[in-house]
Amino acid sequence: MNSLAEKVISGDSRALARAITLVENRSGDYLELLKDLYREGGKARVVGITGPPGAGKSTLANVLIHSYRERGFRVAVVAVDPSSAFSGGAILGDRVRMQDRALDDGVFIRSMATRGHMGGLATATSDVVNVLDAADFDLIMVETVGVGQDEVDIVREADTVLVLLVPGLGDDIQAIKAGVMEIADVFVINKADRSGADRVERELHSAMTLAGVDDAEWTPPIVKTVATKGTGVEELVGAVENHAAFLSKNDAAVKRQRLKYGRKFRDLLAERFLMGVRKHWLSEEEEEKLVETFLRREGDPYSCVDKILKAVEWEKKP
């Protein structure tokens, strides 16, 4: 086994941070590391937290950490932040807001930059979750950037998805219109002490009825919280645990895992294929030249892709 993998499994926090950096940057022998760690995972529960910017995702994650720590859980948080326009790194707002957890050995918080990747999740988020899983965390929370419709990527990683809404954003059911309603396992109306919270709840109930969600095996509960005051957090934890219990007794969990690992496999194939193309057939500099021809309409991307695919030495399935 990779020596770094052994340290991660043994609980070495420095090794864990180093392993995540290798995985995020796609550097060193990160693939061998992932292969070793993958076999040690499969035990952690993954909770996704998504919603529009300003909904209080980081604050809610912080109080959930506290609640689950009181229950004896080891908790990790992957906070996918917007990329800095200057460094390309993560804007570490989430870790700033969770500083009171910095000295807790049972908590690990990591910010990741999207680096331009749409969908609310960084490309390597799935692999980072696998690393944390192998490090024997009981609960892994994935908090996304909050980019609207593309936020549905979160369903790839999470066992339970929390969709946050807040009253007073102008369009109280914006998240529903953006298409994330279908991925919610629990709706959270945060900042529920504001006026308009009851209206958001009524509109959610109406939207679920129209969408036929009420007839499904699992109807997403609606939980009101005021994360800054800790109000409603225990009710939210109860809803998350109820969903976990539902998954344990229902084939929905198997379907979700199949979706997760099927998409992960295809994403990995696409990533590795692109790496091979970059190495053998098309450098980034050559791609830039091709893009210029596309802009001038002197060439088309379809023909270029066909040419590259024909250049690849495809082997017949054994």
CATH homologous superfamily of the largest domain, by name?
A: P-loop containing nucleotide triphosphate hydrolases
Name the assembly state: single chain
CATH structural class of the largest domain? Alpha Beta
How many separate domains make up the residues? 2
Task: Please summarize what this structure is.
By secondary structure, the protein is α/β, with parallel strands linked by helices.
SSE topology sketch:
Layout: H1 3-10, H2 13-25, H3 30-38, E1 45-50, H4 57-70, E2 75-81, H5 93-97, E3 107-113, H6 125-134, E4 139-143, E5 160-165, H7 174-177, E6 186-189, H8 197-211, E7 222-224, H9 233-248, H10 252-280, H11 284-295, H12 301-311
Task: Describe the model.
It is a single chain. The protein is of the alpha/beta class and 318 residues long. It folds into two domains: 41-250, P-loop containing nucleotide triphosphate hydrolases (Rossmann fold, 3-Layer(aba) Sandwich), CATH 3.40.50.300; 262-311, no CATH class. Helices cover 46% and strands 12% of the residues. The chain has helices spanning 3-10, 13-25, 30-38, 57-70, 93-97, 125-134, 174-177, 197-211, 233-248, 252-280, 284-295, 301-311, and strands at 45-50, 75-81, 107-113, 139-143, 160-165, 186-189, 222-224. A seven-stranded parallel β-sheet has the order 3-2-4-1-5-6-7, sandwiched between helices. Helix 2 (13-25) runs antiparallel to helix 6. The two termini are 29 Å apart. Mean pLDDT is 82; it is low at 83-93 and 116-120.
